[in-house]
Amino acid sequence: MSTTVTRASLEQKLALAKRCSREATLAGAKAAAVATVASAIPTLASVKMLPWAKANINPTGQALIISTVAGMAYFIAADKKILSLARRHSFEEAPEHLKNTSFQGAGRPHPAFFRP
């Protein structure tokens, strides 16, 4: 069984990869923006109100806390998006006999190993 790779199929896969990476970048940027606000408010408020934080967390430390949270949120959200898109696309390209994963036993829609 030999498979032939055509230029059109390679270009289609490249276009799909570009679209997936763009979606993942957008999801990561949204998560980073939310995480920045969510971490900046308590960080800056604690430096204003708590004597320990005022004495020990300088502006560089505050920026490090906020940017670390934003960076982590970006990469986690982008990675989750890439994995979900890869899972969806691998399922779409799977043979038909592998797509039917529902358990057809006792009228339950889930596989046997998920039974309560």
Question: Strand content of the residues, in percent?
Answer: under 5%
Order of helices and strands: HHHH
Determine the number of helices (DSSP H or I, runs of at least 4 residues): 4
Work out the radius of gyration: 23 Å
Overall pLDDT score: 84
Low-confidence stretches: none
The level of helicity is over 70%
Number of strands: 0
Alpha carbon gap, first and last residue: 42 Å
Largest sheet, if any? Answer: none
> What structural category do the secondary elements indicate?
mainly alpha
Q: Shape, please?
A: elongated
InterPro entries: Enod93
Keywords: Membrane, Transmembrane, Transmembrane helix
Pfam families: ENOD93
Transmembrane segments: 60-78
Task: Itemize the secondary structure elements and their pairings.
Layout: H1 7-49, H2 51-56, H3 59-92, H4 96-99
Helix pairs in contact: 1-3
Can you tag this structure with a few keywords?
116 residues; mainly alpha; 4 helices; transmembrane; Early nodulin-93-like
Structure, described:
The chain is built from four helices and no strands. 75% of the residues lie in helices and 0% in strands. It has helices at residues 7-49, 51-56, 59-92, 96-99. The chain has 116 residues and is mainly α. Keywords: Membrane, Transmembrane, Transmembrane helix. It holds the Pfam family ENOD93. This is Early nodulin-93-like.
